[in-house]
Design brief:
This protein is an alpha/beta fold and 374 residues long. The chain folds into two domains: 122 residues, Aspartate Aminotransferase, domain 1; 226 residues, Aspartate Aminotransferase, domain 2, CATH 3.40.640. It contains twelve helices and 13 strands. The protein has a seven-stranded mixed beta sheet, sandwiched between helices. The chain has a four-stranded antiparallel beta sheet with strand order 9-10-13-12. A hairpin with a 6-residue loop joins β9 and β10. The longest helix has 24 residues. The chain is globular, with a radius of gyration of 21 Å. The termini are far apart. The site of pyridoxal-5'-phosphate has 14 residues, from α4.
Length: 374
C-alpha cells in the first residue's frame, strides 16, 4: 500500500498553509511578513550570551517557561499559571484548536483575518464559518455573535477566533465592543493580539477573569519584541483551561534560548517602547506620503499598512490591464526593484497591498521607487 494512503483523507484534501515568502537575499527589502525591522536589543543579546556561557544547554528547558510566564504576568496582568507558552503563537493556536475542535464542532472567524485559523481547524476536520468584514473593514462582531449563538443539534460552535488589530487590514475594534462580544459569546472567544503592542487596545488583562471566563487572548514575541526567529508565543485564559492545554503540548516545547531571549525582551519595556515609537512614526509618515501619490490606506493600529494603489500604476506594467489589478501590478513592479510586500489575488483583497513598516530608510526607498511607478 502507498504510504500516503495511510494519511487521513481530510488531511490529504488540504492544500496546507502558505506562509509569506522568506528570503535571505540581503538585497531584498523584506516587507511581507510583519517582522520588526530592528535587531534584538542589547539586553536580549546579553541574556543569550550569559545563557551560553552558563553552559547548561545539555539540559532540558523549564517545561512551562516559568520565568517567562512570570514576566508575562507582570506585563499583562493574568497570573503566571494563566499563561501557556509555545513555539510561536502558531503552536499555541494549534494546541488550542486540537483541544476544542472535532468533526462535530466548528469555529467562527472573520474574512479576512489571519488565514492560518481555517487551516488548523481543518486539521481537526472541524467546520469553519468565515464571516466577511463590514464594508468599512471592521470585523462584523454582530453577525459572528449570531453565528456563535445558533443552536443546531448536530454542530457545536466551540470557538470564535480573530486578530485584533486585524490582519491584513490593521483595523482595531474598541475594547468595549470586544469585551461585550466575549461576554455574550456562549463559546470560547480567542482574540489574537499579535499586533496589539502597536495600537492602544488590549484585553489581555481580562483573559480568563471571572467577568470573562471564556475569553482567551494570545500574543507573540515575533512582532514588537523583534524575536520572530526565536519562535515564542503565549495564550492567557482561565488556569483550569490552560492546564488542559498543557496536556497537549510537547513536554519541552520552548527552547532554553528562546525562553531566555523572550524573558529579557518582555522585561525591557524602555527598548520596546522606543522601537514601537520609531515604527509608528515611519508608518504615519508613509501613509501621508502615499496619500499624496493617490493611494487609499486604511487607518492602521499595527506595524503594517493595507493600501490600495492608484490605477496609474497599470501604465508602468507590461501586463494587460485585464490581467492585473493596480495592486497586482504594483506588487510585481516592487518585486522587480527588490522590494517584497504581500498581495492576495482573491476577489475580496485583489485591490489591496499589505506593507510591513520597516526602518525609515527602507520606507524612504519604498517611497522613491513608488513615486516613479504612479
Ligand atoms: C495575526 C497573527 N497571529 C499570529 C501570527 C504568528 O505569530 P508567531 O510568529 O508567534 O507564530 C501572525 C504572524 O504573522 C499573525 O499575523
Amino acid at each position: 500500500m502507498n504510504p500516503v494512503d495511510f494519511v487521513h483523507p481530510h488531511i490529504r484534501q488540504l492544500a496546507g498553509y502558505v506562509p509569506g515568502l522568506q528570503t535571505e537575499d540581503p538585497e531584498i527589502i523584506k516587507l511581507n511578513t510583519n517582522e520588526n525591522p530592528f535587531p534584538v536589543s542589547a539586553a536580549v543579546k546579553n541574556a543569550l550570551i550569559a545563557e551560553l556561557q552558563a553552559g547548561q544547554l545539555q539540559k532540558y528547558p523549564n517545561p512551562v517557561s516559568q520565568r517567562l510566564r512570570e514576566a508575562l504576568s507582570k506585563k499583562y496582568g493574568p497570573a503566571p499559571e494563566a499563561f501557556l507558552v509555545g513555539n510561536g503563537s502558531d503552536e499555541i493556536l494549534s494546541i488550542l484548536f486540537r483541544a476544542v475542535l472535532s468533526p462535530e464542532s466548528g469555529i467562527v472567524t472573520a474574512q479576512p483575518t489571519y488565514s492560518l485559523y481555517p487551516v488548523i481547524a481543518a486539521l481537526s476536520n472541524a467546520r469553519c464559518v468565515e464571516i466577511p468584514v463590514k464594508d468599512n473593514w471592521h470585523i462584523d462582531l454582530g453577525v459572528m455573535l449570531e453565528e456563535m449563538q445558533k443552536k443546531t443539534t448536530s454542530m457545536r460552535q466551540a470557538l470564535c477566533a480573530f486578530a485584533n488589530p486585524n490582519a491584513p487590514t490593521g483595523i482595531t475594534e474598541t475594547e468595549a465592543d470586544l469585551l461585550s462580544f466575549a461576554k455574550d459569546n456562549p463559546g470560547l472567544t480567542l482574540i489574537d493580539e499579535a499586533y496589539a503592542d502597536f495600537g492602544n487596545v488590549s484585553v489581555f488583562r481580562y483573559a480568563g477573569s471571572t467577568a470573562y471566563p471564556r475569553l482567551l487572548v494570545s500574543g507573540t514575541a515575533s512582532k514588537a519584541l523583534s524575536l520572530a526567529g526565536q519562535r515564542i508565543g503565549w495564550l492567557a485564559g482561565p488556569v483550569s483551561f490552560i492546564q488542559e492545554l498543557e496536556k497537549i503540548k510537547d513536554s519541552y516545547n520552548v527552547s532554553k534560548l528562546a525562553q531566555v531571549a523572550a524573558c529579557a525582551a518582555v522585561q525591557d519595556s524602555v527598548e520596546e517602547k522606543q522601537r514601537i515609537k520609531l515604527v509608528l512614526e515611519s508608518r504615519d509618515w508613509l501613509i501621508r506620503e502615499l496619500d499624496k501619490l493617490g493611494f487609499t490606506t486604511l487607518p492602521s493600529s499595527a506595524n503594517f499598512i493595507f493600501t490600495k494603489p492608484p490605477v496609474s500604476v497599470l501604465s508602468k506594467s507590461a501586463a494587460a490591464p485585464s490581467e492585473l489589478t493596480p495592486a497586482g501590478a504594483y506588487y510585481d513592479l516592487l518585486l522587480r526593484q527588490k522590494i517584497l510586500v504581500r498581495y492576495w489575488n482573491t476577489p475580496q483583497l485583489k485591490d489591496w497591498i499589505r506593507i510591513t513598516i520597516g526602518t525609515q530608510a527602507q520606507m524612504e526607498t519604498l517611497l522613491r521607487v513608488t513615486t516613479d511607478l504612479v
